[in-house]
Amino acid sequence: MKRYMNKYHKHVCITSEIQDNAYDELMNWLESKCDSFSFCLPHFGKVVVTESNADIYPEYEIGYVEEDEESKKDYEQYRRRVQKYLENISEYIIENYVDIEYCETISGYEKEIFIIKFNNITKKFFENVKDLYGWLYPEFPEDLSFYIDGELYMRSIAHERICEFYSESKELKRFLKNNGLQFCELKY
């Protein structure tokens, strides 16, 4: 059951750092609003060409798959490093699948995607890092995203330092201001 694409086209984008106390407050806010979260484990060395990303690889036919031994070993090592984080939340995994699409982004490489029930137990998962943009390969899962009833509410792309809310509520803006988080509003 793939879900989580949001048709909402107005975004609130955070333009400041989200770490330490601001990070903790954000996690508390998200827990009060959201019922699930997700992240991905990127498999950078495994290229997969599908209809969704064929324009990225015009030289290959749909169905093409490429993975060398070195990148396969790298992913296996990465998977072992993050396993300790997965063990603590494994009973709350709602869904786990592999795809090239994740949170409205299409890439040329595979990602293993985890969707997790958000509760006071799984919230402890976020104590492993104290910076939203610290969730990065090769030590941690990447691109934390949060959902309300299956709809994308907030997504992050750590290596690009992007955090977007798919909402423009006054309550959200007040929360961000009260926690010193600068933002801008975008319309797509």
Question: How would you portray this structure in words?
Answer:
A hairpin with a 2-residue loop joins β4 (93-102) and β5. With 188 residues, this protein is of the alpha+beta class. Helices cover 22% and strands 36% of the residues. The mean pLDDT is 90. Strands 1, 2, 3, 4, 5, 6, 7, 8 and 9 form a 9-stranded antiparallel β-sheet that branches. The chain has one domain. It has 3 helices and 9 strands; from the N terminus they run βαββαβββββαβ. The longest helix is centred in the middle third of the chain and has 19 residues, at 69-87.
Write a short abstract of this structure.
The protein has 188 residues and is of the alpha+beta class. It is 22% helix and 36% strand. The protein is built from 3 helices and 9 strands.
**Overall structural domain count:** 1
| Sheet having the most strands | 9 strands, antiparallel
**H and E string:** EHEEHEEEEEHE
Rg, nearest Å: 17 Å
- Unreliable runs: none
Mean pLDDT, to the nearest integer, reads: 90
- Report the principal-axis shape: globular
SS-derived structural category: alpha+beta
Termini separation comes to 27 Å
**Number of β-strand runs:** 9
Oligomer designation: single chain
Number of helices: 3
Percentage of residues in DSSP E strands = 35-45%
Helix share, percent: 10-25%
